[in-house]
Amino acid sequence: MRTLYLLPKLVHSVPTKCFVMNVSPLLRELILHACTFCKLKQRNSIHRRIIEILLDQLEAARSIPLQLRKPTDSRGARVVELLFADPSDSRTLEQLCAQCGAGKRTIERLFIVETGMTFGQWRRQLRLLHALQSLACGEKVTAAAMDAGYSSASAFISMFRKHMGETPSRYFQSS
Known about the structure:
Blueprint: E1 20-21, H1 25-34, H2 45-60, E2 63-64, H3 74-85, H4 93-100, H5 104-115, H6 119-136, H7 141-147, H8 153-164, H9 168-174
Antiparallel strand pairs: 1-2
Helix pairs in contact: 1-2, 6-7, 7-8
């Protein structure tokens, strides 16, 4: 792992809080190259060009929401526990709520307030993260899709491309 420290005045469009991002092969090599210097100095024309390209690449990098906030309210937490235990669980929110002793509208409001996502968005994100973990461990796309609750590999690939910008196989080739 490498760490770069950038002056805040240099970086405008990158979030101020910690986040995970896709690192392109070019950005990875730029980071490795930049780490060979003690300190990049803007007065040095070579260093300045490296800094400029690094900043361009950082701004172009797609951030990936690889964290999934959980509701702290006990009613929402019970729904989350059920889904974390089995991300492929296909029960509707109403069915989950009946088992957890909470109303559907209450849970819908809780998810928006406490996670910043609708329940449907949160569930899709959970399934995506579960599938990403399976794929990273070497699981085949079809098996990862079924394990995460998708009805078919093509439905999963379509969702993956929509959220990650490329198919699972291309994503893991470039990682």
